[in-house]
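Board notes (copied after class):
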Amino acid sequence: MLSKKLKQLRKENKLTQGELAARFGVTQQAIAKWEAGRALPETETISRIAEFFGVTTDYLLDMTDTFAAIGTVSSVRIIGTVKAGYDALALEEDLGSALAEVKDAEGYRYLVVKGDSMDPYIREGDLALVRLQSTLKNGDLGVVIYGDGEATLKKYYYSDGAVTLVPFNDAYETITLRGHELERLMIFGKVVETKTKW
């Protein structure tokens, strides 16, 4: 995995996490997360790291034949913007890509979070990895599109013929959709992971 290779290469080159962070314009905390396997760098950054250490990206990602066959790391498209509120449009913009530990990249999308209604757990600028699906279970963190095409990232609940969308931030109110409002409700997918872009 990248975490082990990165740590190994850094130590072999007698670099501290802080020194490596300075070379790539990120924080020491970002390097620590990468080495701990709690986050993945952007695809472009992985290429830069590989070039810096004089190795291939396949080596950095530990892409042995067995690993490649499993296909657990894929490049997932970043599209549009999801408003962590109630007033953004779901836009199919191509904003590049980022790595994710998924087998079927086409079944997932990364979406950029804006707003603070999901603070403190999901912050503005985070990437939300969304598995594309048309249903959600109660308590799932989902991305739904409703009304005139507004998209929102919220906890999802369905009861007594109504859908309730719940933010993490207590400063924001929940929103309830019922009756004819549900006819314009579309479930975009389930959030399976979020990560901070450094």
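Comment from the instructor: The chain has two domains: 2-70, 75-195. The mean pLDDT is 82.
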